[in-house]
Amino acid sequence: MKITMIGTGYVGLVTGTCFAEFGHHVTCVDNDRDKIAKLIDGDIPIYEPGLDALVAKNVQDKHLSFTTELAAAVAAAEAVFIAVGTPSSRRGDGYADLTYIYEAAREIAPHLKDYTIIVDKSTVPVGTARQVSRIVKEVNPDADFDVASNPEFLREGAAISDFMRPDRVVIGVESERAESALRAIYQPLYLRETPIVKTDIETAELTKYAANAFLATKISFINEMAVLCDEIGADVTALAKGIGMDGRIGSKFLHPGPGYGGSCFPKDTLALMRIAQENGHSLRIVEAAVEANAAQKAKMVKKVRDMLGGSEAGKTIAVLGLTFKPETDDMRDSPSVTIIPALIEKGASIRAHDPQGIEEARTLLPQNITYSENAYDACRDADAVILMTEWNQYRALDLSRLGKTMKQKIFIDLRNVYSPELLKEYGFRYVGVGRS
């Protein structure tokens, strides 16, 4: 099938590349000429394990191409996926900014030829597909098309695997033609017996928000349990294991830490709250999860301060990991973006390392941070080290070497990567999250 992907951001580039790997002929369109030029040259603008090789393979096989020429790409397409950004509104009210979605609809409409299915792949509030349909009809009354919703459920750092081996595919459709078109696109998943969940459009739009809100709530819950464990001397890691082995609960997303971040959970929980409020309802559990997440980041600042004797002023702190999770360069709403400035404001000096996030960190964090080439350089003469993000290369540090380079042997493990007993063997004062 001939597919046109509007947008070459994270979702658009991964989705388009994986569709090409399925055997479809995919054209990715973006109005950013520099980005398209780089993609044509094989320069991938995001870090996602395996994506560069998969892009190169499908470009070579002539299943994947990149262009700024939207008109020709849309006219040749049987399916047009909209995968542009839906950031939180600049007003700061939590609403999703749908400017790029509606601009894409207006630009697509004049160039539709024959029957075309237009698919919202971006995460959008309920009712967006209806608006896209209205815009297309206004611009091109003679267009033969359907609008469908097909939310993505990709985890940064594991996106290709998630796409190729999904738990399910959700399609929100209103016609048999639209359903047939989407089932044909996902036909390569048939042998894996991947469930295709067919719903109405509104349910599909809501499903992505509901999934992310539930996972964010699960993270906030275990973080609140970690705070309680700190207070009463219990161990949250054992607690998480004890409840996670219950099949009704499950072990995933029961890992305490400094709070959730990234491009989805913070944005989508706020947007879901606004959707509910617009319809006269309050999602109190989601609201509590959002509040708990903000509080968790503040508690991590206090944890660092307490380990430094009540004040970080004049202290040098090494921070290992800046991105919101491993295997990505995404810094959006990362806990480090909240925690590090708070420490600097109180007089701390920060030396930091991250395998992929430093370039983006320079634009989001205070300028007076020193970035190091490796973890050991970051920790040299430091009063404390904070393990902020659990990259694999931080999981087996040479603790003897680390201790010899530091001024004070204080290890603040915000991801509970290390055993407290092991750190004590090497002479470190250790604190984790929810571990007595």
Strand and helix map with partners:
Elements: E1 2-6, H1 10-22, E2 25-29, H2 33-40, H3 51-60, E3 64-67, H4 70-75, E4 79-82, H5 99-108, E5 115-120, H6 128-139, E6 144-149, H7 159-164, E7 169-172, H8 176-185, E8 196-199, H9 201-232, H10 236-244, H11 265-278, H12 284-307, E9 316-320, H13 335-345, E10 349-353, H14 358-364, E11 370-371, H15 375-379, E12 384-387, H16 399-405, E13 410-413, H17 420-425, E14 429-431
Parallel strand pairs: 1-2, 1-4, 2-3, 4-5, 5-6, 7-8, 9-10, 9-12, 10-11, 12-13, 13-14
In the CATH hierarchy, what is the class of the largest domain?
A: Alpha Beta
Which of globular, elongated, flat, extended, rod-shaped describes the shape? elongated
Number of domains: 2
* Secondary-structure class: alpha/beta
The total count of helices amounts to 17
Mean pLDDT: 96
| Distance separating the two termini | 57 Å
Going across the biggest sheet, name each strand in turn: 3-2-1-4-5-6
Unreliable stretches, pLDDT < 50, 5 or more residues? Answer: none
CATH topology of the largest domain: Rossmann fold
User: How many E strands?
Assistant: 14
Question: In oligomeric terms, what are we looking at?
Answer: single chain
- Percent strand: 5-15%
CATH architectural type of the largest domain: 3-Layer(aba) Sandwich
What do we call the CATH homologous superfamily of the largest domain?
A: NAD(P)-binding Rossmann-like Domain
Q: Please estimate the helix content.
A: 40-55%
Rg from Cα: 24 Å
Largest sheet: 6 strands, parallel
